[in-house]
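Here is one chain, start to finish.
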Amino acid sequence: MIQILQVFYEEADFLSLILGPNGDPYFYEKMRQFFVRYFNAYLGNRTDKSKWRFPIELTLAYNSNAILGVITYWLQHDTQQSPEEIATMLIETILKGPFEASGLHSIFENDSE
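Its structure:
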């Protein structure tokens, strides 16, 4: 993930345009499909897909769109974080979910009491 983000970082000017609101939807879709394949290959060897609570395709769609959303935001806001910081945030968010990774899970624990 760090290597992928390093390329995005080095090509930030171009990629922020092509992924932006006036960019190329075809390129965005190709990048989304890349992340779907990337995580499908990673998960395919490590999990029993029959034990998933939701269809893996939905999980991959959710994560690939979330990743591209974060990357697009990062590029359009002058890449203030390093590729390593973004990779850590993305991986933790994918593994733990957005609220736990952000430290907000306690909000929901208090609501259930």
